[in-house]
Amino acid sequence: MKEAEIKRLLAANLLCVFSIILTTTVPAFFLDSFSVLGTHLTWLCICSVSISALNIVLCLVLKPNPSPKRSSFAHKISRFLKCCIYFFMSCILFHVIIVLYGAPLIESVTETFLFAVLLSTFTTLHCLCMLGPNIQAWIRVFSKNGAMSIWDNSLQITTMCSILGAWFGAFPIPLDWDRPWQVWPISCSLGATFGYMAGLIIAPLWIHWNQKQLTYKSR
Amino acid sequence: MQRWPVLLFLAWVCFLFFAGIGLFMSGFLLTRIELAHSSSCSDPLTPPPWDRQSLPPGSCWMPQRFSKAVLVIIDALRFEFAWFNPANVSPLPYENKLSFLHHLATSQPRHARLYRFRADPPTATMQRIKGLTTGSLPTFIDVGSNFATYAIQEDNLLAQLVQNGRKVVFMGDDTWEGLFPKKFFRSYFFPSFNVKDLHTVDDGILQHLYPTVDGGEWDLLIAHFLGVDHCGHKHGPVHPEMAKKLTQMNEMLRSLVDHLGNDTLLLVAGDHGMTETGDHGGDSEKEVNAALFVYSKTPLFGTGPPEEPEAVPQVNLVPTVALLLGVPIPYSNIGEVMAELFPGDGDALSAALQQLSVYHVNAKQVDRFLHSYSLVAQDLPAEQLQHLQEIFSTAVEEHVQLLAQMQEAVLVFPELESRLGNLISRFQLYLREARAVCTQTWARFHPLRMVAGCTLIAASCLLCYVTSELATASDSFYRSCLLYPLLWGLVVAVLLGLACTFIQEGLDLLLVSSWAAAVSQVAFFWRWWGRQPKRARVASSQPPLAAIGLRQRLRAWLGLAFPMGILLFRCGAMFSDSFVVAEARVAPFLLASLVVLLVGKLHWDGRLTVPEGPKQQLLGFSSYRKESWYLLYLVAVLLVCLRLSIFFHQCREEIPQCRPSLFIAPLASLRNTRAKNLFYLLCVASLVGLVFVVRCWLRHYGNLNSSDPLVLFVRWGFPLVVICIACYWAVASSAEDSLGKLQELVQVALVAFPWAVYGLVSVGLLLLLCNPMTVFAKDTRESAGPIVTPYLGVPSSEVDFLHVIPQIYRRMQESLKSRLERGSCKATVAAYGLGSVYSAALVIALTLLGFLLLLLHSERLSLAFLLLFLEAFVLLHIHTRARSLAGDAEPFSVPWHAVISWLLAASQFFYSTGHQPIFPAIHWNAAFVGFHLDHSTNLLPAVLVGANTFASHILFAGSQLPSAPALALCV
């Protein structure tokens, strides 16, 4: 049972990684002069949209946390709206936090906001897909011994890796190498993306190796 | 715990750090050996004479071209100030103001010429004066002696003139007095250090300039005007005052030229430029690019001016002026003579021959200098010297050969001309390469000393860490771990000292002390290691305990990993130039990361949520504790503080697109009166707010109840200080001339108000030292005995704390008990403000220090200080909250993340109070708060400027450890 689930997780995660790689190459066929560094904002949009779409599809297909009772259509709609509001709020929150960490306040607002959207896609959207708009569950998952399934574990790892990646991405900015990727927010968004990809790959492997220690209490 | 061992231990640690830093600095700060030789007329350097011209009798090295010269130095005369562009219709305040120079250069192109004058860094006035007179490159280390100007030991232009019986008259900047004691025939010095004073020096010079020129009792007249530089420091270049100042200079030059005779050379030079903010000292283009203007009433140049003004290194002025005035070139000069000023008799051939012989002398002199320098010091690379020597000897040989051939008249004109041109360019090549070699070499470090210094500092840090871990474990620690290292260190120092005296070698105090420091450190670690196994043995006798100890230790290490990782990042960043430049942004970033990490970890450990009960099914955020919300709110405030503090940054020249914060400039530089008033009100409001909050806090914790002198001071003295500071700001920021007749009153007020603040603050600090207790004990018993034995120890000393409180408690208990037994319940003892005994004293001390440091900064930085106090308060609150949430019971152990966040905050506010670790960013104005006239000693201004620069470190370190105030904040 567990092995099979880990395999499903691995497949889903690899799909995500693959789609990120695709977002860097495929648009070049449709858009003139597209490159990740040159037209970074376009790439940010494309990456965010495709990853969100993929995550939503995966969530519908795999159903990691199936709800026990069938809910009405109205309930589903309200859940969906709630998810949208949460996502938007998290974008704003990320934007504010990034600015508080030292990003420019007035200049390049678009860049900062799109970076915040990307981060939200990697973290909040993932959480929304897995856990739904249930803050209580979020708080539980992001605490020690709070994970109740391998999906929760994977969520922990990818979220932390994305945020760590974004954090480390800020480090090359002051260096005087004069590279195109040192411009705000390219290094940070690339850092977040690499962190996310690393998290996606690490998560199944880590769960596989620590299978024995991982015991999930069921509610 | 005894106090003396602890104090001694701290002093020893300080000594270790100082030794390490000193050793590093001695390897890092560049030095150059000054040669004591000097040139004289009898030196065999004269070039071979050619047929039509031989040296007239009595001349020295070269025939004298001018008998007199006037050197007008306009401090910080950037090239753009002197450049006149007729096409510019809307000039900035500093543009197109020296129209007279342009007039001379266009109407008499063979009499006058403007050059770009390239100053060598460091572009501080004293270094530039040294360069302008000795012709050498002053190194880094001289910057340190800017406060006390030392006499120039090297051979220089003035010494040469005096030696040859010429009269040098000086007027202006009194820096020259220290540099050239007893060299001047007559001198009029005016105080230079007060950068706010635009007129004293200039008006003083103008008063004496024309009578002296007309009097004729001089051969070289130097006038050093400071107004432009001071105007730059006070208002910046783009200010109407600058236009006024430059116009004044223009008028001065116009009338000066009228007074000059035909045999006089006029040189107008800027010693350095200035940045857009009016500062200087670094090596940016705007600081280095000064102006030089040459004029004489007899034709100077053989040809017309070039299209674009030529760039001339500053040292080139020295050999040129020396040879024009007919004195030997100073011994250590490495400048190249400006050959176009030696046009010969008129035709091209004689001009070339004349220039060749000038170059010849110049090259011989430089060669002689390089030779004697390489004998004294081995720092010039030998192969490059060899290469230079080759260029020199072939050029000289060919010159002699050429002259011989000319005597025999074998050469015809075109060939001769090309050979002459070739030879001149070879001499030029030699001189330029020699200068390049010197420039390179005098930027050379001692890697061994630097490494040793770094090692010493790193070992001292490790020692501090070990001590902090061990000192709590045993009381006798300080005594046992101090005595042996000290003894060893002393023994080594004495031995080294004796050895030095035996070998008759100069005693290098720095080396001896760093050896002593190293040995005492080794002794310390030896002793510490010796104690270590004993404990291990004790532990191993109980195996299960040891295992637990190991796991606990591992966990402790993991807990340390977060804050230490951040600290490691910060240390690592110091090794990267880019990160040093960006440190102002790095410190808040790391601080924010550290605090967010701390909160994240608390969340991960489940400390922020309510322990899960069996029954309740909570929704949303309601599972968070109330305290957690408070903590999150504090973190948000901290992040906002961090972001706001970025608005107070000064700029470095490495980041050209950076704009300095508008809060750094003094209010006096604002031209918009309304904005000025608004900012003034804002500053006063922030000051009042600070005092108000402090008083509220003290009242809240009951520290304002007693009638001790200290409490009275807090109640009445604080507002008084605020009033004084506000008045001072008002007077200082008013416009220069607006007050008219009240000018004298203003001068008095400018001195009186700061002194009132100094006095009040020192009274406050004295009161605090005498009796730091602000506890008010209300005793309604008949017998009023002393409630508490006076408090003596340092605020963080555990024993004292544990000593005082139980005493009071016992007293209260006893009295209550006795009352109850006697049956009279009316009399009680109440002590107010007991919980914040420690923090109240610290808060008062910090506020007082804050006032003092605020006064030394420009007005609008008071907002930054308000932010500083707020952030410190929030940080302490965060740590107490975090600790109480994490369930740490020990009140006296300070977690590492608290210490590191404190350190990061200190360096963050170093930048946020408008400082940068570069020379031009030093706030020299601070030396004149309360001192309108010049200082008699150098100590006081050094203290004031130092206090200004390290304000943030003083305030953060002044509160010792975060533990002490935090203690009471949690009560």
Key phrases:
A: 219 residues, B: 971 residues, mainly alpha, 8-stranded mixed β-sheet, two-stranded antiparallel sheet, 31 helices, 10 strands, 57% helix, globular
Number of helices of chain A: 8
State the helix count of chain B: 31
Q: Biggest interface, and residues per chain?
A: A-B, 19 and 28 residues
Sheet having the most strands of chain A: none
The helix fraction of chain A, in percent, is 55-70%
Q: What fraction of residues of chain A sit in β-strands?
A: under 5%
Mean pLDDT, all residues of chain B: 81
Please tell me how large the radius of gyration of chain A is.
18 Å
Characterise the protein shown here.
The complex is a heterodimer of chains A (219) and B (971). Helices cover 70% and strands 0% of the residues of chain A. Chain A has eight helices and no strands. Chain A has helices spanning 2-25, 27-30, 40-62, 73-100, 109-131, 135-141, 150-169, 186-209. The longest helix of chain A is centred in the middle third of the chain and has 28 residues, at 73-100. Chain B starts with a helix and ends with a helix. The longest helix of chain B is centred in the middle third of the chain and has 32 residues, at 509-540. Chain B contains 31 helices and ten strands. In chain B, α1 (3-28) runs antiparallel to α15, α20 (583-604) runs parallel beside α27 (862-886) and α26 packs across α31. In chain B, β3, α6 and β4 (186-190) form a beta-alpha-beta unit. Classes of the chains: A mainly alpha (219), B mainly alpha (971). The interface between A and B is medium-sized, with 19 and 28 residues.
